[in-house]
Amino acid sequence: QVRLEESGGGLVQAGDSLRLSCAAGGPSLADYPVAWFRQAPGKEREFVAALNWVGGRPYYAESVSGRSAIFRDIHKNAQSLQMNSLKPEDTAVYYCAATLRIYRRSENYTSSSYYDYWGQGTQVTVSS
After folding, report:
1. How does 80-102 read in b/e, with b if 16+ C-beta sit within 10 Å?
2. For 8, which DSSP code?
3. Is the pLDDT reported for residue 111 higher than 90?
4. Of the candidates 31, 10, 12, which has an alpha carbon nearest to the alpha carbon of residue 21?
5. Helical H runs in the chain?
6. How many CB atoms neighbour CB 103 within 10 A?
7. Interval 56-91: pLDDT, tens
8. With contact defined as beta carbons under 8 Å apart, do 83 and 68 qualify?
9. How far apart are CA 59 and CA 13, in angstroms?
10. How far apart are CA 112 and CA 37, in angstroms?
């Protein structure tokens, strides 16, 4: 079993930066995909970023590409999402997700159904 806990959300102004963290309890996730998703009120949960193994290439949604970065700390079994130049449309609950299945290219890492473990989420609110 994997336990995920997010932190770092809050109320910020447009243009600010924020770093979200996700601590994992249980087995090491170094060889497995981890990701961030978000869900705004009245909208479906959407993919934000993923890193399919430590040292792998990161992937980002177009809406955050160029102003976000996903990091993994294998010593702490944790991952982070740095978000810069925040916009009001970034307002959402942010979730970290993981799976203990080795990534294969045929897998759709942008789909929430790909991940087996989820945190409770952390609220990010960006004021204009």
Report:
1. bbbbeebeeebbbbbbbbbbeee
2. -
3. yes
4. 10
5. none
6. 17
7. 889 999 999 999 999 998 888 999 999 999 999 999
8. yes
9. 26
10. 8
